[in-house]
């Protein structure tokens, strides 16, 4: 978490430089994308599930205490 805060604070500070901010805006975006892809590669190679799949809610048919309901139109 500390790395992401540092990266964001540094990117924000560099974007505030008058003319160079345009270049730093692009390079910060590219750097963040490369960093994210590296983190995803590490998760895939170690077999750790990603944050997206860890928060998945099971399908309604898999929930406990399910009550069947018949709907007529």
What does this molecule look like?
There is one protein chain. The chain contains three helices and no strands. With 73 residues, it is mainly alpha-helical. Helix 1 (2-15) packs antiparallel against helix 2.
Indicate the low-confidence ranges by residue numbers: none
Number of extended strands: 0
Query: What's the helix count?
Result: 3
> What's the alpha carbon Rg, rounded to whole Å?
22 Å
Major β-sheet profile = none
Give the strand content: under 5%
- From N to C, what is the helix and strand string? HHH
Q: What would you call the structural class?
A: mainly alpha
Overall body shape: elongated
Provide a compact summary of the structure.
This protein is an all-alpha fold. The chain has a domain at 2-49. The chain contains 3 helices and no strands.
Keywords:
mainly alpha, 3 helices, 73 residues, single chain
Write the layout of secondary structure elements.
Layout: H1 2-15, H2 21-46, H3 51-54
């Amino acid at each position: 978490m500390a790395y992401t805060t540092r990266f964001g604070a540094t990117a924000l500070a560099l974007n505030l430089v008058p003319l160079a901010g345009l270049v730093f805006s692009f390079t910060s975006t590219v750097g963040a994308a490369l960093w994210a892809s590296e983190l995803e590669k590490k998760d895939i190679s170690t077999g750790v599930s990603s944050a997206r799949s860890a928060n998945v809610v099971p399908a309604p048919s898999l929930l406990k205490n399910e009550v069947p309901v018949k709907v007529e139109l």
